[in-house]
Amino acid sequence: MNYYKVLISCGHVGNSKEITIARYFKAKNTIEAFESGNRMPRAKENIRTHRFCL
Question: What is the pTM of this model?
Answer without folding.
Answer: 0.68
